[in-house]
């Protein structure tokens, strides 16, 4: 039953041969990579306006345009810089790899930590933003926003555990529908404005009460809020090997198409905001307000709200692809637990996916699924990793002998300087609002990753055998054996286990600990009926506990054993063939196993006894 | 580090001798048992008013009094009925035991299911109600209500995992402070009303717009909402053996004291509501509004809000005591997984506690921590179990030979009739609002519990050995052994494991599967340096996966083995002595173990290799 459910939810297991088919062509790749960046128009413009409107009032709509232009300029620089990375790292050069190879391990880990935090926030922010599009259109869903976001994350987790290609096919349709919607919105919105002029002015007490003046700090603050529009841009360069051949060329084309899309959609909606004056703060997103101004309460309004919601949820997918892949790279380098490299039955990096959705879900819960509260944590990591990648690229070109390396150095230097300044601006402007959390987390993560690496190294050192050791090792019969079989009663399972034990050694001890005197007596009587010289040691536990006295006894025997004696504890274990059967059995055995492993040199053996569930 | 944290959170482990000290005397027992019942005044009156006020308007305050009197009448009948149960079941007679013994297993399980649901809702409702008292006093905490409730449940879980006696001592102080506060509130509120008269009438648009008329259905609806005041009454009779000796007498005294308290507090606050006309719906609870009317913005107002909050949270404790205890009883009877009987290091039934807090936390999340939405699910289970307990008692007295059994039959018959009618009223009035969920859940739970019982029984049947079997079993040496040691490389751990394997049998096979050709080559070279006749089988896995080909190979060998050959897979396992060390190792081993266990008759042995973490 559970197996059927798992199959329905996660699909049939994929054989390894199917792995190669899981790669992106240009349209699918663009759909997967684009969602993160283009969905951010749903909140980036809003965040800029949030900063401006309380200070500048109605002049904000004018300045919104200029700040959007600054961000588009930054987009231009980043696009060129990232095409350089695709060129230099055909095997996939995320900020982690570029920084590690060119700037050393420590800075590589800083980039890795930034990216991991960034991926987690991508999920939290995008999912929250997607649900905000829905609650804008259907305000009575507002009280359920957190629940809707969490459910969305769970659904995405399941889709991603099914495997990436199938996911991207599902994801590409809404991406293109959203792009279509945006083209219609911007085109029709601009035409409508020039035909019919501005709509009647709205009441915006927040804006009309504004009394502040324009300052460079205000502009920088608004700029740092808007930088969230550029998150997700690095996805393409990370994922070069995931593209179909010629993967480098395809990735480059996708990168350029993506930037074009951001330019058009982000620029276009900023223009519409200037024309249609959305109100802030409001229960509805500004994109929802603009769309309503342009299309009214029509099909197109709901079409855009729903595609915005879906594309925002799909934006999470960038992280659901990127996070596990990055974790797997880090784990292969020994900086994270090795299980992050284990692929699931559907060839997805299951553990990374689950970890990602768990942490981002908690963030959504803590921050009440409020995009505005999450944003200050978001951009720091992104721009820090941008900066490190650009810096790494400068070193890369300097050390390379390729022709034209000087031009490349210039390009990446410009990128480095711009992203570095942006990082400083973001940290400065957003520190108290949440950026401090990221500033603290990054060194903690770097330290943790270094510790993991040290641990694996120390272990390898301890386990190492030298050539001389090998030659001197004899693998003859060195040990005699004592096998102890813990039994609760004499049944078919314990009898089989005793037979197995007896054929290993003559020194078999049956050990029974019980808090029930009657049961112990019954066991002794039955034992006498059994024709055996195996020793039965039965202990009555006065204090209900069974496991502790059993462990104590085993400890005593282990301490008394000589160097040539090996103690094996053989535990009969019921094996059921229903998923719930295992919930009903073997918990005592599990506790004994865990405790023995941790404390002693006793070998623990499990003797399976298969139960017939179907009878 | 983790161990230290666990100690701080959960306290030092309690030895079994300390178990006896964990019992209640009268004041502590009252404090633990009372919280559930008396904290319900914080919402029961409110729920009655909620039903009335939209229909009857200002006349509601008058009818509130009469409905409260009906509920107090019900309280009187239930108290007498439950004292009967304490008399008849000194070993603790919850509805489950009374129904099972007198009405048969099926109805016993119905009672058990009702009680389990009831306990879960006690936690959800009480914790939400407690937080509502706080958000009434501090309205800017309102958006964080769900989070506060979840945090409260987590804190209570930790306290309860520490053990019950310590908990009850912590819990008794706020209970008595709350009782003190209520006495002051009711006394001063009544005196103030008679000295100064009613306060100036408040605007209550909801009440003044009401145009409905009084009907019997309205009264029944209000009555069914108010019945939540009587939840938790059964706690005393469940917990007779937890009282100090003479436990029966102590329990009876606590039962009477408890009813007196409910009478005074519930009756008193209903009276105050009639005098001071709290407004509904409102962001503040009606208890908060009444208290504010009586004491104004004074110390006493905050005192009562805070003690209300604390006692409501402590009310959860009734469930944290009752749920795991009931689960343990059910599990001992074979109707629930046996691990519910396992006591933790602090003598608490840890698994039951964790299950309870998990499910109730999810309910809080789904229902937005809104008491009004949770109430319809609450009372059904309570009154269904009341009815079953009373019915069971009638049969009990009929079958007993005690003098005066006729009088007892009459008392419990009245109890049965009244609670049965109340159950019908609640189901009828609250069906669509949520009672249907409980009506569906109860048969599902009963079916599940029966299935668990069937499973344990079938297993016992399969394992049973007859006397003749025992006499014919020979425990001599019957088997020859093949031991397979999966190794990834030649290191100290794998060498030790091979030595152990070799001393069991000559048929040892070292098996290595790798996706890395270089590693395999290195292993082969090293193996040749080793002077051994042990067979090394190395397999190159073309598709990155390691576990699947390994399992396939083991399957092949297992299929080829004869009846007298036993296959043992010996896995070297690294043991680390830091809590995080285990996160970094042995995951492949774990997967192999799980898969082998499920499929084959292969014995799985773990060879521990202790790593020196502290170096």
Structural summary, described in words:
- Chain A has 615 residues and is of the alpha/beta class.
- Helix content of chain A is 67%, strand content 6%.
- Chain A is built from 22 helices and five strands.
- The first copy, chain A, has a five-stranded parallel beta sheet, sandwiched between helices.
- The radius of gyration of chain A is 31 Å and the shape is elongated.
- At the A-B interface, helix 17, helix 18, helix 19, strand 4 and helix 22 of A face helix 17, helix 18, helix 19, strand 4 and helix 22 of B.
- Strand 5 of chain A pairs antiparallel with strand 5 of chain B.
- Chains A, B: The chain crosses the membrane at residues 41-60, 66-86, 107-138, 144-161, 173-194, 214-233, 253-273, 299-326, 347-369, 375-397, 409-428, 434-454.
- Chains A, B: It is a multi-pass membrane protein.
- Chains A, B: Its main location: membrane.
What does the secondary structure layout of this molecule look like, with pairings?
The structure is a homodimer of 615-residue chains.
Chain A: H1 2-10, H2 26-39, H3 41-56, H4 60-88, H5 95-103, H6 105-137, H7 145-161, H8 164-196, H9 205-208, H10 216-226, H11 235-238, H12 247-276, H13 286-295, H14 299-332, H15 350-366, H16 371-399, H17 405-463, H18 467-472, E1 480-486, H19 492-502, E2 508-514, H20 517-529, E3 535-540, H21 547-560, E4 565-575, H22 587-599, E5 603-610
Parallel strand pairs in A: 1-2, 1-4, 2-3, 4-5
Which descriptor suits the 3D outline of chain A?
elongated
The Rg value of chain A, from CA coordinates, equals 31 Å
CATH homologous superfamily assignment of the largest domain in chain A: Amino acid/polyamine transporter I
The CATH architecture assignment of the largest domain in chain A turns out to be Up-down Bundle
How many discrete structural domains of chain A?
A: 2
- Give me the CATH fold name of the largest domain in chain A: Amino acid/polyamine transporter I
CATH class of the largest domain in chain A: Mainly Alpha
Strands of chain A, total number = 5
Approximate strand percentage of chain A:
5-15%
